[in-house]
Design goal:
Blueprint: H1 3-10, H2 13-16, E1 33-43, H3 67-70, E2 75-80, E3 83-84, E4 102-103, H4 108-114, E5 118-120, H5 130-144, E6 147-149, E7 158-162, E8 165-172, H6 184-197, E9 200-206, E10 223-224, E11 227-228, H7 232-242, E12 246-250, E13 258-261, E14 264-267, E15 272-275, E16 290-296, E17 301-307, E18 309-310, E19 318-319, H8 324-336, E20 342-344, E21 349-352, H9 353-359, H10 373-378, H11 391-403, E22 409-410, E23 419-420, H12 422-431, H13 441-444, E24 449-451, E25 461-465, E26 474-483, E27 489-495, E28 498-503, E29 514-519
Helix pairs in contact: 6-7
Length: about 525
């Protein structure tokens, strides 16, 4: 295990002491689900024209308040807005008002410590100090074991494997020396080549006009200071059509909308993330989201989260209890992509629209403690209030709530809220409605009233044998969604493929393993 992987695995106890990260927990095992974090622009301080522009403490605390979150994914991505170079290089020509970003080589260790895996280097500031700056940046990243791409003819793609998953990465921008965002034929060719031999293809683009008045996705070619900054909508769709699975945008220095296109996740800008120095971080320019996307092994979007963070005093991003970045992304998504398959909540939950609609078929009310950041970040459901008091309404609410977790990953011994085993899932669901179930299916089966298969009702538990079909020992449990009285039972459960619904009659695995049903709910409730 190299230094970066070791740092990523160890976590930071200081940060976890203040902030719960249940809502962003890493998907263990990596069997069926991967998690990918993306952030916006990163510039860790410049030593040009003097070291006076470097951050306090030599930048070692720039990621202090967010690195536990950044480490908590299968892959963590960022846009490196500037070159690594201790001194020298040829500053770009400038008439007036130009920005020059040249980071000391040693600052690459700050990226390692924060948990980054892959960096985009296709952007305008990568060329601030000419060929030497670009060449040294590649050398420094390579020496640190970080993956990177984005320079034309130099490093147009990157392939790497983490936890048995093969990733392909490529980056695009409108600037000299980069792989051009405007060359769609080449974009498609590069992405298709990665798709041919990688499980997941991540595409990064630095494009679009800059500034607070350029926060909308127009669907047209955007120009800024006379430069063609690309048609980011056309680009992103072309990339997905060619095989991209996740598309992370940056460049406007403010957040933009998200979209679900052909079951793939796109976010058009993640704004400024960690930009020490001369960057403008006032107002919406200071929104610094961490966007976490869960996909299956083929790149299909499952769900996502936005951790809202802020840059306030140029000493690095800090989590934001007001969820300002998430609220802005939600607002812009609803404006620019009203028909997209995504919904974004004000707290940063990103869901497939059909999953949200299914989960809200019978409404429940989730109350988040107003002044408690850990609970708000984790989106805990401890304060869930059921609607209605009769048994029909209660069972409907239980099923609606259960469906919200479809697609969540399996982990043996896990009791939620981000991963589950079978009895962990049933006990988690029922606990939210005031019913305390044993965390083991072997003992859960002893807690209620036995019910024969034909009489199973919505909200009952359904039990199965384990892998050993010749044994009568209970080894698995789910929750009954419906039963047509002929024994065609639909149930929801946490299995090794994650939380999903199945029909008993159509399951060659579970049909012969059926043992019994159990009624937990009081029919007179």
């Amino acid at each position: 295990m190299n230094l970066k992987r070791l740092l990523k695995a160890t976590g930071t106890l200081l940060v976890f002491a203040f902030f719960s990260w249940n809502a962003f927990s890493r998907t263990p095992g990596g069997n069926d689900t991967v998690s990918i974090i993306g952030t916006g622009d990163i510039m860790l301080g410049s030593n040009y024209p003097s070291v006076a522009k470097l951050p306090p403490g030599d930048g070692k605390d720039l990621f202090l308040h967010v690195k536990a979150f950044l480490r908590d994914a299968s892959v963590t991505f960022g846009n490196l807005e500037g070159c690594f170079l201790d001194s020298g290089g040829t500053p770009k020509p400038c008439k007036s008002g130009c920005y020059f970003f040249r980071m000391p080589d040693r600052y690459v260790n700050h990226l390692l410590d924060a948990g980054f895996d892959v960096m985009n280097i296709a952007n305008n500031h990568m060329g601030d100090f000419g060929p030497r700056g670009r060449e040294n940046t590649v050398k420094v990243l390579q020496g640190a074991g970080l993956h990177y791409a984005g320079l034309e003819g130099v490093c147009e793609t990157s392939r790497f494997e983490i936890d048995g998953v093969k990733y392909g990465f490529c980056g695009f921008a409108p600037n000299s020396g980069t792989v051009r965002i405007t060359d769609l034929a080449k974009v498609k060719r590069i992405v298709a080549e990665l798709d041919s031999d990688c499980d997941i293809v991540i595409v990064s683009f630095h494009g679009g006009a800059e500034g607070k008045v350029h926060n909308r996705v127009t669907g047209k070619t955007e120009t800024f200071y006379g430069e063609n900054r690309g048609n980011v909508l056309e680009f992103a769709h072309a990339a997905v059509d060619a095989g991209a699975d996740v598309v992370f945008g940056h460049g406007p220095h403010v957040v933009r909308a998200a979209e679900l296109y052909r079951d793939r996740f796109i976010i058009y800008s993640m704004g400024n993330f960690c930009t020490s120095g001369d960057f403008n971080i006032s107002g919406i320019s200071g929104y610094a989201p961490i966007v976490k996307v869960y996909t299956d092994r083929e790149g299909k979007f499952i769900r996502g989260r936005i951790l809202s963070a802020l840059q306030k005093d140029k000493t690095g991003p800090v989590p934001d209890a007001g969820h300002l970045a998430a609220k802005e992304i939600k607002r812009l998504t609803e404006l620019d992509f009203p028909q997209t398959g995504l919904t974004v909540s004000e707290e940063g939950v990103i869901e497939r629209r059909e999953a949200k609609d299914a989960g809200n078929a019978n409404p429940v009310s989730v109350v988040l403690p107003p002044d408690t950041l850990p609970e708000a970040l984790a989106l805990r459901h401890d304060s869930l209030q059921t609607v209605g008091h009769d048994s029909i309404q209660l069972t409907q609410n239980i099923i609606a709530y259960s469906k919200r977790f479809i697609g969540y990953s399996y982990r043996r011994g896990s009791k939620g809220p981000e991963t589950f085993d079978c009895s962990g899932f049933t006990s988690f669901i029922f606990r939210k409605f005031g019913y305390q179930l044993s965390p083991s299916c072997v003992t859960q089966v002893k807690q209620g009233t036995r019910v024969v298969r034909e009489e199973l009702k919505t909200g009952d538990l359904i039990f199965f044998k384990g892998r050993n079909i010749s044994s009568n020992r209970v080894g698995h449990v789910g929750i009954v969604v419906s039963n047509d009285k002929s024994g065609n039972v639909v149930f929801i459960h946490a299995c090794r493929r994650g939380v999903k619904m199945e029909e008993l009659n159509k399951s060659p695995y579970y049909r012969p393993r059926y043992v019994t049903g159990l009624r937990i709910l009081d029919e007179n409730s």
